[in-house]
Design a protein that fits this description.
heterotrimer, A mainly alpha (about 400), B mainly alpha (about 375), C alpha/beta (about 250), A: about 400 residues, mainly alpha, MetI-like fold, 2 domains, three-stranded antiparallel β-sheet, 3 strands, extended, B: about 375 residues, 14 helices, about 0% strand, flat
């Protein structure tokens, strides 16, 4: 009897341990999510604000065609007691675009002050985003500005309007955002009709023979191919063989279309399969032809499923990086693309590029871009869930 | 584009007009609806437009031809023509063509990679490739034909790097993924499952470039400072890849575990087994084929993963089992060899295609294997 | 009584299994013919031959002649789409489309090109729903979903939908088996009225139902017709012992 009791005790102890492992596993998974998110959020928040320095403008200041010289003069006006060597060093505390910013503001209106973006190091120092050590002369400047209340942070509009830049303080994600948009659009234009048509044929019309089986096996295999292989395909077919321009949104879209084609086909087939046969039989019994059955009944009823599948496919395409790197979307893109054939880049590739940059200032920009990308993906997933809950029928 | 739309609309209304005209005139009941008449006209016009446009690249000629076809159709259609049948034949052919194009893509992938790989193997001995232990394409000198000095395309160290990182990833992902799946399906309450499962699946939706960033900027420095790892190490990439794969294994295993019929569990409880004993002795063995398949699929995913390794693993081939060292992988090499300024025809760039072929075959085999395992060992529960 | 449908040497195979053996049956027009028999005897398979619904089953093969109004509808050059406008079918489980009541009824006429304009459409819908005995119950909610009706109403909607195409023959495959007794009674009296205009062939598991509503009854067993005669004869004075055993419940 007592050996039984100890045996049972042992078994209960084993049970508790087992449960613990399970909880640990889930706990770890959650911990990973949290660490990832917290890290990105804390690093990225800074990227949404930009440090601006206010400088006085002498009365009656006339802009010349040399923006840099204008800026130097304004700087001299603000710090008359600095030597020209010191002024040069001070100039480094401002964004290299400073001259252009000054010129634009003065053109718009004659003001007493101009706001200039601070250089990346000063920006980081002021926002306390990172451990930056500034040269003494810049430290002095910042303290001086703080006292005068001439330095502040404001919402980083540049991040959302500008393209890439060599300087982190002026780097924006608009070019890659527009590039992503164009690419996904091109991708959908090819993949959606092709995928839905293939799925309809395979599910509703294809005779059950060897040929159809081969078709189905092929498509299932395609879904499991690593995405980089599609990049190789895009490189050798679109760029080499068809001579399309590298780095164009159109080529990126075509490459991604091949990638999400199996996703759309499989999602559509599942949606079509879930429409109960009694509806088809009823329509057939009334004298509808098989194609009328599909287009009048099966397809409309399968639409919510097809749309959720497509949206999830788009979410996947949005985050794809490797294949697009292969077809050349790694160029430095400061200008927002205006056509399908202009060189462009996409958001995840931009993130990849910025991660490689040496300047510390790019870290917060990268994290900010990641935040935007994740928000977009969350939005897409929410839309998919909404559609699924509102429109999908439980048969 | 707008002209195409306008001509489409014209064609559609022309079709409907003809149908209504016929309906009023004759006593014969028409076999199709007005809309299908309109559709026929549209298909007619669209196909003509596309064909002419692709042939002559002139929008105006194409529009003119399609309008001419539409008007001709107007006069040709009689009350006895079976509009619906004609429409459906056109649509059926379109669907079939789309399916064939979709399949064509697999063929295109295989062909294009094979083609470039063959060009590679014309220059480099395939045995050297498959069994060589030295990978440094930058040292390749085509003019140097001395024996043994050009054996720089050996895949073994690269494959070794891939397997090492995959191994580390599996060490992380498999225990956590499977235990999480077990806990989720056997222990957790219904209302928590609704939140916990999607929350963990969030991990699976994060783009790999974000994981790469995480690995390069946070995990790798951490491991370097606290464990003396190389700045770009297998363990940094492996751990992060493992995190990425957790939801993959968890999802697939969860589905399989849930599919085990309750009747089996009840039988075990009836004998007086505890929950963990039931899971260990009844549920997991029953779900084992599916769980194995999910692990194989996860391995396949890890092997094909690119961004995490490009950003966190290294560029120099290194055959080792020490995860703290820097290694390179098949996918990293493909990316490095093909970005930057390389002529397309040199053996260096072609080797990337050979690597791509190896990768494709490897993942194909793993996926096929996974399917076979499930098929062969699955019990059919009704 | 004239013959509407005549089958000659009808054989049906599912792959290698034969399910119907040399069925020769003459079905009267403007009458209700019931098909009875134990499960798996082939009566539903036979019914589906009459509107070529078996075509949708890949492994099914039908040989022999099915003559409707002097035409063999089992030929290969027959347009089944047209045929199904002439021979309608009501299924065992009510299956209205997830559309409005109006759209459910008008769907058939629309695709066959019978509808001239909007007023004509409304006429057709009202007519069919009246004939199906459903008009009074749904005339105020024609634009509500058909799936929102009760089981009995749904089945009558399916009947209305079938009638709207103006068939000559209506096939019914155990139409009341999913309904309660009151709904069943309503449909049975409906069938009684419908026979004045249509030829009706009904498969039923309930012998009481066959006795109540049909004029002629065919007793199927293992793919063969055992006995076919006036309903009154089959149920009171059957010629074969096998029939007698079945209707008294000794087996099947």
């Amino acid at each position: 009897m007592s050996s039984n009791k100890t045996n049972t005790k042992k078994r209960y102890a084993a049970e508790r341990r087992f449960k613990l492992y399970g909880k640990l596993a889930i706990g770890l998974a959650f911990a990973f999510i949290l660490i990832l998110l917290v890290n990105i959020l804390t690093k990225g928040v800074g990227g949404f604000s930009q440090t601006k320095i206010t400088l006085d403008v002498p009365a009656g200041f006339e802009t010349t065609s040399n923006a840099r010289k204008d800026f130097k003069n304004i700087l001299k006006y603000n710090y008359p007691d600095k030597s020209s060597r010191e002024l040069r060093k001070l100039g480094k505390a401002f964004s290299s675009n400073a001259g252009y910013e000054v010129a634009t503001q003065l053109e718009q209106a004659t003001t007493q002050t101009v706001k200039v973006t601070a250089a990346s190091d000063v920006d980081l120092y002021y926002k306390q985003s990172a451990d930056i050590s500034l040269p003494d002369i810049q430290l002095e400047l910042v303290n001086n500005l703080k006292q005068k209340n001439a330095i502040n942070t404001q919402f980083n509009k540049d991040f959302f309007t500008l393209g890439d830049s060599r300087n982190p303080e002026k780097a924006g994600m608009m070019a890659s955002f527009v590039g992503s948009l164009f690419t996904i659009l091109a991708c959908l234009c090819l993949a959606l009709p092709l995928g839905i048509a293939t799925a309809i044929y395979l599910q509703e019309f294809a005779p059950k023979n060897r040929f159809t089986e081969i078709l189905e096996i092929n498509i299932n295999n395609l879904a499991a191919v690593p995405s980089i292989v599609y990049g190789l395909l895009g490189l050798s077919v679109y760029i080499n063989f068809m001579d399309l321009p590298r780095s164009a949104a159109l080529v990126g879209g075509l490459t991604l279309a091949l990638l999400i084609l199996p996703v759309i086909i499989i999602a559509t087939r599942t949606a079509l399969k879930s429409v109960p046969d009694s509806i088809r039989k009823a329509a057939l019994g009334l004298g509808a032809s098989p194609m009328q059955v599909v287009f009048h009944h099966t397809l409309p009823l399968a639409m919510p499923g097809i749309m959720t599948g497509t949206i999830l496919g788009v979410a996947r395409a949005l985050g794809e990086t490797a294949p697009l790197i292969m077809i050349g979307m790694v160029a430095f893109i400061p200008e927002i693309a205006s056509s399908w054939l202009d060189p462009s880049t996409v958001l995840p590739v931009q993130i990849y590029q910025w991660t490689k940059m040496a300047e510390t200032g790019f870290i917060e920009k990268t994290s900010a871009a990641i935040i935007i990308l994740l928000l977009l993906l969350i939005l897409l997933n929410l839309v998919a869930v909404y559609i699924r809950n509102k429109f999908e029928r439980r048969w | 584009m707008t002209y195409l739309l306008i001509s489409t609309l014209i064609a559609f209304y022309l079709g409907k007009l003809k149908h209504n005209k016929l309906a009023i005139d004759s006593d014969v009941s028409l076999k199709s609806s007005a809309n299908s008449c309109g559709l026929l006209f549209v298909l007619n016009a669209a196909i003509t437009h596309l064909a002419v446009f692709l042939g002559t690249s002139n929008e105006y000629i194409a529009i003119a031809t399609s309008i001419i076809t539409a008007v001709t159709a107007y006069f040709i259609i009689t009350p006895h023509s079976n509009i619906r049948k004609i429409n459906e034949q056109i649509i059926y052919r379109f669907l079939l063509i789309c399916s064939i194009i979709s399949v064509f893509i697999t063929i295109a992938i295989v062909l294009s990679i094979l083609f470039e790989s063959f060009r590679f193997f014309e220059e480099i001995n395939i045995i050297d490739y498959l069994f060589g232990t030295h990978w440094s394409p930058q040292n390749y000198n085509p003019d140097f034909v001395e024996e043994g000095s050009n054996k720089v395309f050996g895949i073994i160290p690269v494959l070794g790097g891939t397997l090492l990182i995959t191994g580390v990833a599996m060490l992380v992902a498999v225990p956590i993924g499977i235990f999480a799946a077990i806990y989720l399906s056997e222990y957790i309450g219904k209302k928590y499952r609704k939140f916990v499962k999607p929350a963990i699946e969030v991990l699976g939706g994060v783009p790999t470039v974000v994981y790469g960033y995480f690995a390069a900027l946070i995990v790798a420095p951490f491991l370097k400072n606290h464990f003396g790892a190389d700045p770009e190490s297998a363990i940094a990439a492996g751990v992060v890849m493992g995190i990425m794969i957790i939801p993959y294994i968890m999802s697939l295993s969860d589905d399989v575990i849930n599919a085990v019929p309750q009747a089996l569990r009840d039988a075990s409880y009836g004998i007086g087994a505890t929950k963990s004993e039931t899971v260990k002795n009844v549920v997991v063995p029953a779900a084992l084929p599916g769980i194995t398949a999910s692990v194989l699929l996860a391995i396949s995913r890890a092997i094909g993963e690119t961004m995490i390794v490009v950003m966190a693993a290294g560029l120099v081939a290194n055959l080792t089992i020490n995860p703290l060292e820097s290694v390179t992988t098949i996918t990293t090499q493909i990316v490095t060899l093909l970005t930057g300024d390389q002529e397309f025809d040199s053996a260096k760039t072609l080797s990337a295609f050979a690597l791509g072929l190896s990768l494709f075959l490897l993942t194909l085999m793993l996926n096929y294997f996974a399917l076979r395992v499930v098929k062969k060992y699955s019990e059919k529960y009704e | 009584m004239s013959t509407k449908i005549q089958t000659k040497n009808l054989n049906l195979y599912y792959g290698d299994n034969q399910a119907l053996f040399d069925v020769n049956l003459d079905i009267d027009s403007n009458a209700v013919t019931a098909l009875i028999g134990p499960s798996g005897c082939g009566k539903s398979s036979f019914l589906r031959c009459l509107n070529r619904m078996n075509d949708t089953i890949d492994i099914c093969r039908v040989t022999g002649e099915i003559i409707v109004d002097d035409n063999n509808i089992n030929g290969s050059n027959v347009d089944v789409v047209e045929l199904r406008a002439k021979v309608g079918m009501v299924f065992q489980k009510p299956n209205p489309f997830p559309k409005t009541i109006f759209d459910n009824v008008i769907y058939g006429p629309k695709i066959h090109g019978h509808v001239k304009d909007k007023t004509h459409a409304e006429e057709i819908v009202q007519n069919s729903l009246q004939k199906a005995g459903l008009w009074d119950e749904v005339k105020d909610r024609l634009h509500e979903m058909g799936t929102g009706l009760s089981g009995g109403q749904q089945q009558r909607l399916c009947i209305a939908r079938t009638i709207a195409v103006n068939p000559q023959i209506i096939l019914m495959d155990e139409p009341c088996s999913a309904l309660d007794p009151i709904a069943t009674a309503k449909i049975e009296s409906l069938i009684d009225e419908l026979k004045l205009k249509y030829t009706i062939v009904i498969v039923t598991h309930s012998m009481q139902q066959a006795a109540r509503i049909s004029q002629k009854t065919a007793f199927f067993h293992l793919g063969k017709i055992v006995e076919y005669d006036k309903t009154s004869t089959i149920f009171t004075n059957p010629k074969l012992k096998q029939t007698q055993d079945y209707i008294t419940g000794r087996y099947g």
